Amino acid sequence: MAEKKTEMSFEEALERLEEIVGMLEGGDHPLDDSLDLFSEGIKLVKFCNSKIDKVEKSVKKLVNENGELIEKDFSVDGSDEA
Description:
Number of strands: 2
Radius of gyration: 20 Å
Number of helices: 2
Helix content: 40-55%
Largest sheet: 2 strands, antiparallel
Shape: rod-shaped
């Protein structure tokens, strides 16, 4: 019976990326293996960035204006653009 493939979590991807960085820093791998690891690392970085972008777009903040709580989009740069 085939296993169902589930998407890697952000935490799993980050952990694997840290492993790859450690292996590449060690310098104990042949060039071809290092290139494969580097390629996997780039894919993981893109995956993690995509996850972070999705979370940033979904995060809301509550602002108290005139005694009422109003939901606004959260902005990393601190602006209150919606």
